[in-house]
Amino acid sequence: MLKKQLDFIRSKTDFIPEIAVILGSGLGALADEIETQCIIDYKDIADFPVSTAPGHKGRFVFGRIENKNVVIMQGRIHLYEGYSPQQIANPIRLMRLMGAEILLLTNAAGGINSDFHIGDLMVIDDHISSFVESPLVGKNDDEIGLRFPDMSEVYSKRLRDIIERTAKEEGTEIKSGVYLQFRGPNFETPAEIRMAKTIGADAVGMSTAIEAQAAKHCGFEVCGISVITNLACGISKTPITSEEVTETADRIAPIFKNLIKKSAGNF
Ligand code: HPA
Description:
The chain is α/β, with parallel strands linked by helices. It is built from six helices and nine strands, in the order H-E-E-E-E-H-E-E-H-E-H-E-H-E-H. It has a five-stranded mixed β-barrel.
């Protein structure tokens, strides 16, 4: 299946990306600003999962950011859309086969850490994926990766340092912390957020950890940035809405886009 999908991509473009980027909810606008060389809609790729979430366009955008060749997923695939963890791994593996060696994951997340404010950016140091099934369950393809891959440094220290250094150079404040993935699509209860805090999560969301697992398995150097679009349930004084998530993402977009571009240039 992957081979067929790669052949299809190659029939459209011979572009070799160095960096793969996945843009989270409300953060897709970055892809409209790069020097675009080619766009491929997910729906045109055989057996490929299609994004159905609000604010997720559902296409690969190939182009240049700073001095780097990038492939951007403008729109990701979520568990809550009904896709399996194995389907979520598909685009990751395909981008690796296209030639990308670095994966930058981005997402909108609810803040749990009491030092976090709405609109903060957070470099992902590590994740908790224990509430969702691993994308590596099932028969292992030894050509893709190991049966039992190590997860001691999913988010590359080298890339985290570059992001933090770049943020400093750009005068952008950035926090760091642990991201916890729940299934969604409902936001969490206050009790779930208390539990998440107790077990060490700084931010919570409905994506990313599965993608990072699949990416680590297939040999990507991985990093991630969360936009804290709201305070998590029970910490927030008001009910959480997807409008609040998108509004914050829109507001932070200029700073976020600048940090992604400059970091990618420094990778
Ligand atoms: N919870 C889960 N996912 C999210 C949140 C949240 O509070 N904010 C943005 N994505």
